[in-house]
């Protein structure tokens, strides 16, 4: 059957090539339907518990989409007329931004005071020029108000800020985010031209700017990283293949395969994110292997005097099955990403699997026509490579016992280093140190307010029940415990509002800085307070409209994601032990979502890798019809990932969202080299060769192609390190490390294993 298929490809090669081009064009047409999103929520599946908790909070309270504008006067004088005028101007202008729902700032803050039975709500900052004495009194009053310090006013009084709240419809998130970001920058350009802004430095942070930064990074990768990888791969192929025509057909197959994968995303309605956008790059890198193996074999036969047709037919005969199996195993490895807890990585796996199988089909359909029209007349990179491969084979045969001992020692060392890896991501550190968003966020976190928040929502079970004294006392005790934790900077809730209202309604007596004694009293205080607030200002971000649930916002120091996860575990443990009137609830917020997703994703990917590994082993067993060879292939397929993560633990030690998928991803890649070596070794053994001669033949015949493909793969993924996005950098660097280790394992571990355990005739 295979012989007839090869004959048909050779005889109808023009038709086959035409069909390949038409299929590629039809698939690539789907790219016109591609859409992108930079919303961080896209990293979480619909059933993700952390996302569900965040959406519950947003459904009952204010949304979490904020813009933080930090103002830092060069002289540190927040309380002078020029700075206060700047704050007032920005507060008014921010309310005009698209989808803005409110602004928190010094000029918009309205503290409460009591006069007899009346509750007076007035702006803390009067809308007029203030004298030096008034400014000093205002400064003392503001620094003494715990409701605004370390939120919109620094504890030292030298930095202030605005927090604008937005409610996006999320119908077209990318356009909505861009609209807000563009309007914000236009507002700040106008601000910088005002006289009162001459000596004020500003920084833009918050969730809105995070989404905008991710959008800009996505475009930067699409316009910068893609062309760079393509150009470097083209140069490498020219250098290694030593043939313009061979390079052209390889590049054509690469582009057709990548276009098919990305076009499939458009036809399937997949919304691309930063991880899934790299599918095209990954396919471009992987598609090289099929062409290189066939072209290398043809080149080696050509120098032996065979005709182009005979060389092509021989290459098809010896490479068809290995290339088919490597394509299938690579696709299976990437399909294992479907067990990922993060949708963008599931999309990445599916798109790469499509691209890999497309590369297999296109190489078979395109190469016969091209190579008959432009014959390959010399092998890739000679320059003593064949002699070096033969010398390597002899070295491996001679030192096989020592190599096995060294391999075992390296594996043991890698296993010992694995615990050095820690889970978690800090979304701020996704960007380079000099990136504007990271600079702004770190400055704001250091000088004004913590940018890592965890929200807890407690439902009292009935309308108005959140104002019951017992429930409020329970929440107050929990807030006090939170404040005692070393990583907590501030806790905000409606409890602080109620305590200040109780004091105001009792003549400002500090003894009444406590919760009201009855539910009715608390409800009356809040009603008076809400009626006295300016239009558009309310407390629904602290207490829901039905007064059945309240929200505690915990501001944390800059700590690792793993530390945030452990803090949340302690918080829920305290709730379980002490709560009687409230149910235990999990924390919500961007930091805690990314803190949990890395560990959850890693656990799910262990299952995915295990299933993919089992399927690949079964394929190898069926292909070689030898349990011995299938078992011997396990070591070089498992070792690279173990050693790679061991090296990572000793050097970087951070396993984030993107690295959880490296196991499944690299498994599909590294099996390719193992399979080609085993296939050639098995053919030699079936021909009567001894294990030593079979090893020599395998390394000398396919070793060159393995070096070329591994070099291109290594360089291609290593180029991901040029990205400014940490997830892409880590993903590419660790994958490159594993690919390099895999090549070493296939050359220096697999042959000694074959020599040690395949001694029968």
In short:
This protein is α+β, with helices and mostly antiparallel strands. It is built from 27 helices and 13 strands. Helix content is 62%, strand content 8%.
Task: Please tell me about this protein's structure.
The protein is built from 27 helices and 13 strands. The chain has 761 residues and is of the alpha+beta class. Strands 3-6-2-7 form a four-stranded antiparallel sheet. Strands 10-12-11 form a three-stranded antiparallel sheet. Strands 1-8 form a two-stranded parallel ribbon. A hairpin with a 2-residue loop joins strand 4 (112-115) and strand 5 (118-121). The model has no long low-confidence stretch (mean pLDDT 86).
Notable characteristics:
alpha+beta; single chain; 27 helices; 3-stranded antiparallel beta sheet; 62% helix; 4-stranded antiparallel beta sheet; 761 residues
